[in-house]
Amino acid sequence: MSKSGILDALRSEEHSLKSQLVAVQRAIEAIEGNVPPAAGRGRKKAAAKTVGRRKRAMSEEQRKAVAERMRNYWAARREAKAQEETAQK
């Protein structure tokens, strides 16, 4: 085995052991009651401020404009599909 192959194997093992260590630490914290058990697998997220998303508000005019664009879009799609089907027959 080459030197780089050995290093890759060792790094892979190190990553595996670190993951196991994190899992053990979480289990200990959960047993001690400090932190509820994690719901999913994977890395622990960094403790960052969570910023709430603002809900985008559309005016009545904007909603009507979007609805009209989508009606035109789907009408064009239906027409193109109908023309394609008639061309195949």
How would you characterize the overall build of this protein?
The protein is mainly α. Helix content is 66%, strand content 0%. It contains two helices and no strands. The longest helix is centred in the N-terminal third of the chain and has 30 residues. The relative contact order is 0.05.
Topology:
Blueprint: H1 3-32, H2 60-88
Task: Describe what is shown at a glance.
The chain has 89 residues and is mostly helical. Helix content is 66%, strand content 0%.
Q: How would you describe this structure in keywords?
A:
89 residues; mainly alpha; 0% strand
Order of helices and strands: HH
- Class based on secondary structure composition and strand pairing: mainly alpha
Q: Beta fraction of the residues?
A: under 5%
Number of strands: 0
What's the pLDDT, averaged over the residues? Answer: 84
Q: Which radius of gyration do the C-alpha atoms yield? A: 28 Å
The helix fraction, in percent, is 55-70%
Poorly predicted parts: none
Number of DSSP helical runs: 2
**Biggest beta sheet attributes:** none
Distance between the termini: 63 Å
